[in-house]
Amino acid sequence: MIVNEFEFTLKDGRKALIRSPREEDIQGMLNYLYQSAGETDFLLRYPEECGRYTAEGEKELFERINHSDTEAMLVCIVEGKIAGNCQISWNNRIKTRHRAGVAIALLKDYWNQGIGTRLFEELIRIAEDHENILQMELEFIEGNTRARALYEKMGFRITGVGVNAVRLKDGTLLNEYHMIREIRRPIATHKP
User: Fold this and answer.
1) Which secondary-structure segment (H or E) carries 54?
2) 145 to each of 127, 178, 184, how far by Cα in Å?
3) pLDDT tens digit string along 51-88?
4) Which residues contact 153 (CB under 8 A, 6 or more apart)?
5) Residues 35, 47: Cα–Cα separation, whole Å
6) Rounded Cα distance, 116 and 112, in Å
7) What is the DSSP-derived secondary structure letter of residue 109?
8) pTM of the model
9) Which of 109, 142, 152, 168 could be joined to 174 by an S-S link, Cβ 3.0–4.6 Å?
10) What is the tens place of the pLDDT at every residue in 103-128?
11) Could you give the 3-state DSSP secondary structure of residue 155?
12) CB 140, CB 43: distance < 8 Å
């Protein structure tokens, strides 16, 4: 789905643009994926695994998501560079259509600028606009206290743990925590 673009001001005064990805963003997204993978152990990829991402693959991904009724991707652009992105997706299966999965990542140079909060506000708006969605779900890796603080600020709570779900190159095993944010909806009343 295409999301209406909007601008906002970062904490340091720079302007940022949030919008759905476009074909012109392909190389910037590839650069972003590679760079972000090398900045933290809290993403599920290492830089050398980014070789599987191609311009053709990103173009297909952007087109699929932008034409979907059950997915949205947002990119945050600062001074012409992709600073971060996020995604929300759900399905139309009766038993699970109430659950929307979300993911977010930002380049380290853009941490503490309000981008994560602004992206999450938009993800929450999207979820609230779809009446079947009753909860948003995400995961974070043990030790990622910055992400956890953001998620809790945005109303998420821990609901479970995947023990030893991530194994780093050095052999370190880390847990993965599952979180949800419930969407509060008015209860329909039936009048006799």
Assistant:
1) none
2) 25, 14, 26
3) 888 999 999 999 999 999 999 999 999 999 999 999 99
4) 117
5) 7
6) 8
7) G
8) 0.90
9) 142
10) 999 999 999 999 999 999 999 999 99
11) coil
12) no
pLDDT tens digit sequence for 144-179:
999 999 999 999 999 999 999 999 999 999 999 999
- The enclosing H or E element of 38 equals helix 26-39
- Identity of the amino acid at 4: N
Q: List Cβ neighbours of 112 (8 Å cut-off, separation of 6 or more).
A: 11
Collapsing DSSP to helix, strand or coil, 117 comes out as helix
CA distance 188 to 47: 49
CATH number of 6-133: 3.40.630.30
Residues 6+ apart with CB under 8 A from 142: 166, 174, 175, 176, 177
What residue type is assigned to position 76 of the chain? C
- Quick one: pLDDT band at residue 22, thresholds 50, 70, 90? very high
- Spatial neighbors of 79 by CB under 8 A, at least 6 apart, are 14
Q: Where are the domains of the chain?
A: 6-133
Q: Six-digit token pair at 141? A: 């890796």
The DSSP letter of residue 24 is G
